[in-house]
Amino acid sequence: VHSVVVKDSAEGSLAIAQEIADLIREKQAKGENCVLGLATGSSPVKVYDELVRMHKNEGLSFANVITFNLDEYYPMDKEAAQSYWFFMHDHLFNHVDIKPENVNIPDGTLPVEEIRAYGLRYEDKIEAAGGLDFQLLGIGRTGHIGFNEPGSAVNSRTRLITLDHITRVDAAKDFGGIDNVPRKAVTMGVGTILKAKRIVLMAWGQGKSPIVKETVEGEISSSVPATFLQKHENTTFVLDPSASAELK
Ligand code: F6R
């Protein structure tokens, strides 16, 4: 894993958006689709703001872009204010020219007995699109990527998981209290993420500095699933000074 420390999250977000835009344009020039794995939460907000700006002011088109989001709470209606479906439309998809049929977000509305087969279909769809060209990641304080909480295997695939208590505490403000935070989520697996050709993980703020240290310098282990990124040969961590503060 290669770490880059940027001046602040604004500067880091612009650099990440620029990399994504360059990739979209490079693929466009070759007549190819660009397959993006996308994250929600607070970390990527400025990346999406910048991509929207580039669409509006610089003619960046998403006509050749296919997206796969990492995760969704379970159960969760699409239209709920806390849904990742709503987040993605609100921050990105409603403001760019992506084809609605090219947007894929794990479905939080399925009967529980259908999720296994759904997860396999999600994986097949990524493969059929040509695999993830680029995967954007945040990191949770538990060391989750997507919602792969501690205990997730390196070869895990899209599936239903139980959210860690710390993750639910961190989500409580968005739900008006921890009791309203769903206990489960549907998430791409660690194995799904590691197949991406390129991975960029963002971490902003002091709250992330202990887990960033463990992820970059710790032993590779399912107790900190983000450590599996150490096995991926084309991953960059983009960190602000606070998130990188504990690194050697
Ligand atoms: C979101 C996701 C999560 C978040 C992580 C950090 O789709 O997969 O892994 O990236 O929980 O969340 P924030 O950015 O809100 O600190």
From TrEMBL:
Domain Glucosamine/galactosamine-6-phosphate isomerase, chain residue ranges per copy: 10-236
Coiled-coil zones: none
Name recorded for this polypeptide: Glucosamine-6-phosphate deaminase
Included stretch of the parent chain: 29 to 276 of 654
